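Can't paste images in this forum, so I'm doing it all in text. The chain is below; anyone willing to post the predicted structure tokens underneath?
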Amino acid sequence: MEFVEWYPRGYGVGFKVRRKLYEERSRYQKIEVYETEGFGRMLVLDGTIQLVEDGELSYHEPLVHPALLTHPAPREALVVGGGDGGALREVLRHPGVERAVMVELDEAVLRVAVEHLNVGKGVLERVLAGREPRAELRVESGADYVKGKEAAFDAIVVDSTDPVGPAAVLFSEGFYGDAYRALRDPGVYVTQAGSVYLFTDEFLTAYRRMRRVFDRVWAFSFPVIGYASPWAFLVGAKGSVDFGRVDLARAAALDLRYYDPERHETLFQLPRYLRGLLALDATE
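Text version of the structure:
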């Protein structure tokens, strides 16, 4: 058996699968879990691969750690989405984080992650049972949650699905504005931004919207197992955060597998054509 996620222009990313373990249609999306031949279990939402267990770190590490390690002292963090628990797990690996709030729209994803995936490493179970003193879970719209928040968080990590359907609002200028106000000064915001090659227009649209809101914006990419890599990420700063500078002392204690803080500059090795487009936007 095979599972293939088809991207535009007939490009596909696929895995050999042994069997389908679970399927459900929640209020918001179709949720599937497969057992792959060589990468553990795979989570699929509305036909799009969200992660494979043996490889999810190649997404969650670059999503979380570069942003938190370039903030001078993140104490309170917000995770929007990320119902599989991987982003929250990585945020809590930073001992300086005293409080993390995770806001997930679809309660069914949380349940499926706990019952069928080994990603949250017990974090979701502890949070759901009220046994994780540094974290809390809110089941609601992330866009609604940030509205009206003022200087509430040092870091915001958006681990959303692609900018269609329920997640489209998380790529809007209005949401970016709400997130900016919810950040303290200094503050850092990071979001996944799609396939560099196949979703270039969507990536550039998000970049332009963020530039109209945040004090500085950076784009970077990383090869992610299971995605149409390289995969794009966007970082927005409020105040003095410099995404080019990493706290290597804090990084040394994390024992990371994919993202290398000592080679942080390699994140910015974007394709030449994309660097040109970003440079044109920067002159506007």
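The CA atoms of residues 204 and 278 lie 8 Å apart. The chain has two domains: 2-52, 57-282.
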